[in-house]
Amino acid sequence: MDALLEDVPQEAFQTMECPWGSAGRSITLGLVSGFAKLTLTLLNKFEVVNYEQFRQALDHRPKGTGLITIANHVSMFDDPGIPSALTPWARFWLDPWEDRVRWTLCAQEVCFKNEFLRQFFAAGKTLPVLRGEGVQQPILRVAAWAAARGDWVHLFPEGKIQLDGKLGAFRWGVGKMVCDARLAGGKDPIILPMYHSGMSRVLPFKAFIFRVGHTITVRIGEPLDLSDITCDCNKPGKDQQRVWEAIALRMHAAMKELEDQSPPNLSQRKLSKDQSSAGLDQSS
Question: Which residue windows does the record flag with biased composition (Polar residues) (predicted)?
Answer without folding.
Answer: 262-284
